[in-house]
Design brief:
Layout lengths: L42 E6 L4 E8 L16 E4 L11 E5 L3 E2 L3 E2 L13 E6 L4 E13 L5 H4 L7 E12 L4 E12 L5
Parallel strand pairs: 2-3, 4-9
Antiparallel strand pairs: 1-2, 1-7, 3-4, 5-6, 7-8, 8-10, 9-10
């Protein structure tokens, strides 16, 4: 069975925002892609009211090196198109984004680590349907220790997984040391 956090982990503040970095994960998810219902539209917008954030979402995939793609534009978020869709009832809906960019400044997820349990999250699908979630937990993992099989799991009740870079920036490696992962579950009380 998959991993659903119930309490937030302590998050340490990262290095000052500087040069950009893409999520790097060198192993493909240890799960099979889900077969989404053809009646469910993909997510096209994410809103984090507690952060004042509203951003476009585009589909992304795992590249040939096993890293999850992130849109080049730091203002746009990526939805793992082999994962679940909002409203499916099962599986992880994974959305990733940048905290910053070397050429374009701050990214959409620069404040992701500030989300707290209970904070609302909304997705809008291409059909116009709005899906409501509540943050249930937050974790920070060293990139090499990211539990991809758990984070990408499709063998869980529907959940939203938001992921970005975090921790200190390593200029020699050209990226951040960690990933910040926020988990959220459907919130029927917001409907």
């Amino acid at each position: 069975m998959g991993y659903v956090p119930d309490v937030p982990a302590e998050i340490t503040a990262g290095a000052p925002v500087g040069v950009g970095d893409m999520l790097t994960r060198r192993a493909q998810p240890a799960v099979d892609p889900v077969q989404a219902s053809p009646n469910l539209a993909p997510p096209v917008r994410l809103e984090l009211p507690s952060l004042g954030l509203s951003a476009e979402i585009v589909p992304v995939a795992v590249d040939g090196d096993g890293a999850l793609d992130v849109p080049a534009n730091p203002d746009v978020l990526g939805w793992w198109s082999s994962g679940a869709r909002p409203g499916q009832g099962q599986g992880s809906i994974l959305i990733d984004g940048h905290i910053d960019s070397a050429t374009e400044g701050l990214g959409t997820f620069v404040h992701l680590r500030e989300l707290e349990p209970g904070d609302p999250v909304l997705t809008q699908s291409a059909s116009g349907d709005v899906h409501y979630y509540r943050v249930t937990g937050r974790r920070q993992y060293a990139k090499a220790a990211l539990p991809a099989g758990e984070v990408f799991s499709q063998d869980v009740q529907e959940r939203l997984v938001l992921i970005t870079c975090g921790g200190p920036f390593d200029a020699n490696a050209g990226g951040y040391a960690d990933n910040v992962v926020v988990f959220a579950e459907p919130d029927a009380s917001s409907i």
